[in-house]
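task queued by scheduler; priority normal; single chain, no ligands, no partner chains; default sampling; output format set to structure tokens
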Amino acid sequence: KTMTEVRETAPGVHGLLATKDFNVGEVILEESAPLIRLAAASPESESKILTDYLLLQQQQQEKKGLPKEDEECFLAADLEIPTEIETSVRSKFRSMVLAVLCFVDIKATQAKHDLLQLYHSRETHSESERAAVDLSKQVLSFLDAKAIHNRLKTALNENRRVLQDVMLIWACNAFHGGRIYKEFSRVNHSCSPNGVVVSNSEEQRLLATVPISAGSEITLSYLSTMFLYADTTTRRHLLMNDKYFECSCERCTSNTDPTEAIPCPTCHPREGRQLSEDVQYDDDLTVHYVWPKDWHCS
């Protein structure tokens, strides 16, 4: 029996809603495998798809004899990312290229159809989403110049908007490794999620973290768990950079944040199950705690 359904939660926005009550720890959703993977499964498959579809700077056979640890650097050089692409988005540029190539390489038309239901094309975009759209247009121009496979050339000529939608789906809906799930990728973000994902290889389960009533929207955090303790400015910055939207969840728009009750990690060091060291010892000063208002740290 279906325990969830996809419905419009705001104009032009769809989400996953509960059709029954869920208790804490109860399984809300389970999918054994992704619908499509918009990324190469291994360095070897990445090398093959790049070679099959694109004119590379160097021939792949030159890789023979290289130490294994040098293969990734070699592949990065092969792609010859245009110099005008900013350093901060070069990794995303490369991933978008691979997302398009993986999509074109898939022959299962139903899977492609289901994938495209995750994004609704529109003529106007929010300011945050425009950055992803602009980057996708740069990828399309790059592919125009580098395409050598007829299937890719045809897609660029006939389905250009579809390829752009695929890149935006990768940017906004993909799980680690470019995995896109038919139902999981429908779940919207909240900085106070009522669900948590438990993964076992390709299989994923969504468990309720609080009691959920029928008719309520199911949410999860697009940020890693260590950033649940970060302040609103940090969380919004990360979501804008990684997922191209400004979070307007209840926690982000509230005048107070529940993490203000978290003791200062300097005044009260953690022991045992402590917070991630990446957060506690933030050398780049990119993560900030929500400090209790009436405490003062030296």
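post-processing summary
- The chain is about 35% helix and 15% strand.
- Residues 292-298 have pLDDT under 50 and may be disordered.
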